[in-house]
């Protein structure tokens, strides 16, 4: 049976667990290195990346997650995407593994949070007839953007102004927004599809 871990140090881990439960998938909260044993994939939730950095370090999770991410599907949402980026501007990487540069809090104070419809053609791989081609409701909360993608990184979605908000590099998935805060399960199903496709691992 597939079990997906959700890093549960801080931030929106419960919403990810709830969505996976709705999809009939077993989940496990990851708070210590041992919690990674036997997992098929891992989600890094949104929250505050500086807090996640501090707690992951305190809990001895930096190296174990880094190692896990080299061989298993992993998905970072918002602060989780920041945690996967190899380049966070002036800051040292947290886990790294995704060949991108991100800019934190890219939307400034005026537009702290917003929702917008984006097109994500990749989701058609798992979409039902009704869902196919329909936009995805993307919820942004003090979100980062991907400023630069390096070799091997595929852009999955951009905003209308061209800014990159979803990427994939093999078995590593990153979204600047929060699919777990919507009713649309496509991104979670897409991640499960990655977990179940050994070719990507
Ligand atoms: N602004 C947060 C950070 O820089 C991310 C916000 C979020 O995850 N919703 O870590």
Give a short synopsis of this structure.
With 201 residues, the protein is an alpha/beta fold.
What topology emerges from the helices and strands here?
Blueprint: E1 3-7, H1 13-22, E2 26-30, E3 41-44, H2 49-58, H3 62-71, E4 74-77, H4 79-84, E5 85-87, E6 98-103, E7 113-118, E8 136-141, E9 145-149, E10 154-158, E11 164-169, E12 172-175, H5 186-195
Parallel strand pairs: 1-2, 1-3, 3-4, 4-12, 5-6
Antiparallel strand pairs: 6-9, 7-8, 10-11, 11-12
Radius of gyration: 15 Å
From the N-terminal CA to the C-terminal CA, the straight-line distance is 17 Å
Overall 3D form: globular
Which molecules are bound besides the chains? glutamine
Number of helix segments? 5
Catalogue the unreliable spans.
none
Strand order of the largest sheet: 2-1-3-4-12-11-10
Structural class, from helix and strand content?
Answer: alpha/beta
Overview of this structure, please?
This protein is α/β, with parallel strands linked by helices. Helix content is 23%, strand content 29%. The strands form 3 sheets. It has a 7-stranded mixed beta sheet with strand order 2-1-3-4-12-11-10. A hairpin with a 5-residue loop joins strand 10 and strand 11. The structure holds glutamine.
Offer a few descriptive terms:
single chain, 201 residues, alpha/beta, 3-stranded mixed beta sheet, binds glutamine
């Amino acid at each position: 049976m597939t079990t997906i871990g959700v890093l549960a140090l801080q931030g929106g881990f419960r919403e990810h667990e709830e969505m996976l439960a709705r999809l009939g998938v077993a989940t496990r909260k990851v708070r210590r290195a041992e919690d990674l044993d036997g997992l098929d994939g891992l989600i890094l939730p949104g929250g505050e990346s500086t807090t996640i950095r501090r707690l992951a370090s305190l809990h001895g999770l930096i190296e174990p997650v880094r190692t896990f991410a080299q061989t298993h599907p992993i998905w970072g949402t918002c602060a989780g995407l920041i945690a996967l980026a190899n380049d966070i501007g002036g800051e040292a990487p947290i886990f790294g593994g995704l060949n991108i540069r991100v800019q934190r809090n890219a939307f400034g104070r005026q537009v702290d949070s917003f929702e917008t419809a984006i097109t994500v053609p990749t989701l058609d791989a798992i979409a039902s007839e009704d869902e196919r081609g329909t936009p995805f409701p993307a919820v942004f909360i003090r979100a980062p953007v991907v400023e630069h993608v390096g070799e091997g990184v595929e852009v999955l979605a951009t905003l209308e102004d061209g800014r990159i908000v979803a990427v994939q590099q093999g078995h590593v998935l990153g979204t600047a927004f929060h699919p777990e805060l919507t009713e649309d399960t496509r991104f979670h199903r897409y991640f499960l599809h990655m977990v179940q496709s050994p070719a990507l691992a």
